[in-house]
Design brief:
heterodimer, A: alpha+beta, elongated, B: mainly alpha
Chain lengths: 310, 402
């Protein structure tokens, strides 16, 4: 399952970032913004690039073999022993991603007596990610091919990205004192050109993980939902948080298998646009206001001092 | 060392005592308590830099922020707002009767911020990259970038505001004159920065509507943070002046009880109005978020504790104190306000965050020891400076002219 559009460059990153950088750099830019009410909220919405890649996960096909986890371990050099991926013991508890597990498959029991559903979790590769907007050092990047990647060379280790992620996916190398990194799935960004698909998608024996252009995958998902009434009529990730590059379809309602429901359809960073756009206004108007009050106060004090002299 | 040099050290560093007498004067019960805390906390700080955060903290992938941020940073910076409130009151609004309180307020603020950044440096994964967001790789769309930039500039401003006391102590007349010239500019720029970053600290949580409990999450978070830090910062000044009066009573230039009580009442009034605004905003945020259905849960009870004990109770104490002209009640109100602020910051940054995720965070003893150590450092540095520099008193050769 591959496409030939994977070689899109990473320099065409989110333009809102550049826009906001302008707002902060230079008084001229800062001075102009308050004149345009709602400037930041009118910042260009990220329109998904037509070549944006994505992963479609059909939960009804997953048998919990965890070969995706093993492939991830190998592709990302995570250093876990291969034997780890042969034991079913891990299904005894619900696991989360950590610094050496970028993807985890959990066994979810939707209702008593019901058949288990295996749910693979990893970074959702949001179209407008909270981690990208949270990072004060621009360590995260939303690439035009869909992958959200991380650059450890500028990371300061504040871990705001981890708090900001709705899905709590980024993990941290807490045991490293000298070069701790944030760790998460990068959609095999660095070898996707060579491999043609993320390791998990390439290996899946059930075709439960399909990789390709997001548009195409959404069409494919719709087809499956139409053909088979057993599916829940929802593509998780199509609209959630403005869309993600990981999409799920399922025969069991998403809320019964650990998916967050009622997620906003707006991209998460929108929540900070309004506030960020008031800051330049504050920077321009407050000094004038305070200086004005100061001059009145001073004139009053001078007048008083004069009165005392007379 | 020349005899003059030795005399200078004796007079200005050793408080006019011989080395032996000075060291002996340091052995006090409270200093021993402080030393015991530092004896535990300092090795932990060293251990954190050798073995990492994993070995010293209970932080996890789900709960990446602990008390080094919740207490040291979010609370520490909030109670340090008194310096801002005081310079605005005295220099912008012209309430010159509070002038004797300006320098202790600035010192409290400066130390509060400096220690918060020190705490942050311990918490950051790669603290040596602190300048990165400022100069190297600027994440300008990030609220955290805004916080970093404002904190950096404001600490510089606070240093400039504190500097007059230091240069008077060192008798550097030329520098003193130059500082006088930039003074009002520093006050105005500093005020703008405070409003920016205090509200930005609240805005950090705007990205977390699914992770912060609905009773604490609100689009008003920036304004809630600002209103509460003004109330808490002013209340902290009352607490600080209460302690200063007991410890450094002999130094105070406004040493009569009547003056202190009158100023305390005035501060109480200011803190009360800020609290009223805060309470109103707080209730409005619940109404706006339609979160009333959470009130009758365990989290609702905890929220009510914060509202009733942390905001309503001190408001009533201030109200009664002002009505009966009782500085004692205002002092109690101030202590409760500061504790209420602590509860709020811990709730937002630690306790009510990730409330619906499986693992809970409880700080390790090592995290608590480090936070306590920073408090001891704060007290010690404050005392060291007050005992030497003209903070509570004025030097005769440098009259009060700004």
């Amino acid at each position: 399952m591959t496409t030939n559009t994977t070689n899109t460059s990473c320099d065409k990153s989110v333009s809102r970032k550049d826009f906001l950088r302008l707002m902060f750099l230079g008084g001229a830019a800062a001075a102009a913004t308050p004149l345009l009410p709602g400037t930041a909220s009118a910042a260009p919405r990220i329109e998904l690039h037509k070549d944006t890649l994505a992963v479609l996960i059909d939960l009804s096909r997953c048998i919990g073999c965890r070969s995706c986890e093993a492939a991830c371990n190998e592709a990302n050099h995570l250093g876990n022993h291969p034997a780890e991926y042969e034991s079913d013991k891990v299904f005894d508890e619900i696991r989360r991603t950590d610094a050496t597990h970028f993807t985890v498959v959990n066994k979810r029991i939707p209702a008593e007596g019901a058949a288990p559903v295996f749910v693979k979790n990893q970074c959702m590769h949001c179209s407008e990610p909270a981690c990208v907007s949270a990072c004060p050092a621009r360590a995260f990047e939303k690439n035009i091919n869909g992958a959200v990647t991380y650059n450890p060379d500028v990371c300061i280790g504040c871990r705001y990205c981890m708090q900001a992620c709705t899905f709590a996916m980024p993990a941290y190398e807490y045991d490293s004192a000298f070069d701790p990194r944030v760790r998460k799935c990068e959609m095999c960004f660095h070898n996707i050109d060579k491999q043609g698909a993320p390791a998990c998608a390439s290996i899946c024996p059930q075709d439960a993980i399909v990789f390709g252009r997001r548009e195409v995958l959404i069409e494919e998902a719709r087809k499956r939902l139409e053909k088979d009434a057993g599916y829940v009529k929802h593509i998780f990730g199509e609209k959630e948080l403005g869309g993600t590059s990981v999409l799920y379809i399922s025969r069991v309602p998403f809320d019964q298998i650990g998916f967050p429901t009622n997620l906003p359809l707006e991209p998460m960073p929108k929540a900070t646009y309004g506030f960020l756009s008031t800051i330049p206004v504050l920077h321009i108007t407050l000094p004038v206001l305070l200086a004005g009050i100061y001059s009145v106060t001073r004139r009053r004090d001078d007048a008083r001092a004069e009165d005392d002299h007379e | 060392m020349t005899p003059e040099g030795r005399a200078w050290v004796r007079e200005n560093i050793l408080l006019g005592q011989s080395v032996r007498d000075y060291l002996r004067s340091l052995v006090t019960p409270w200093n021993l308590v402080g030393a015991a805390i530092v004896a535990v906390g300092l090795p932990v700080i060293i251990a954190r830099f050798i073995w990492g955060l994993g070995a010293t903290t209970n932080l996890s992938n789900t709960n990446p922020w602990g008390i080094w941020l919740g207490f040291d940073m979010f609370f520490g910076v909030a109670i340090a707002t008194g310096g801002f409130a005081m310079v605005v009151g005295v220099y912008i609004l012209g309430r010159t009767e509070y002038k004797p309180m300006v320098r202790p307020a600035i010192l409290t603020g400066f130390l509060g911020y400096a220690l918060a950044v020190f705490g942050l440096a311990i918490d950051l994964g790669r603290p040596w990259r602190l300048p990165y967001p400022l100069f190297v790789s600027m994440g300008t769309a990030s609220v955290m970038f805004l916080v970093a930039e404002h904190l950096f500039l404001y600490i510089t401003i606070q240093f400039l505001e504190f500097l007059p006391a230091a240069v008077e102590w060192l008798r550097l007349r030329a520098v003193r004159a130059w500082l006088h010239r930039i003074h009002i500019g520093a006050v105005i720029l500093g005020s703008v920065l405070v409003m920016g970053h205090q509200s930005a600290l609240g805005a950090l949580f705007l990205l977390m509507p699914t992770r912060l409990h609905p009773l604490w999450y609100s689009p008003y978070l920036p304004y809630l943070f600002f209103a509460s830090c003004v109330a808490g910062g002013i209340a902290m000044l009352v607490v600080e002046s209460l302690v200063s009066h007991k410890v450094f009573g002999h130094k105070l230039s406004h040493n009569d009880h009547e003056t202190i009580d009158r100023l305390t009442l005035g501060l109480g009034k200011a803190a009360m109005f800020a609290l009223f605004a805060y309470l109103g905003l707080k209730l409005l945020s619940i109404a706006h978020g339609m979160s009333w259905n959470h009130i009758f849960t365990g989290w609702g009870a905890w929220w009510a504790v914060e509202i009733v004990a942390g905001i309503a109770l001190p408001s009533v104490l201030f109200l009664l104190g002002i009505w009966r002209e009782s500085a004692t009640l205002v002092r109690w109100g101030s202590v409760v306000t500061v504790l209420g602020l602590l509860l709020n910051r811990m709730n937002v940054a630690v306790i009510a965050l990730n409330w619906n995720l499986p693992d809970r965070y409880v700080p390790s003893w090592m995290e608590i020891a480090v936070s306590a150590t920073l408090v001891v450092f704060g007290v010690w540095i404050f005392r060291w400076i007050v005992n030497r520099m003209p903070i509570l008193n004025r030097l005769p050769e440098f009259p009060d002219h700004d």
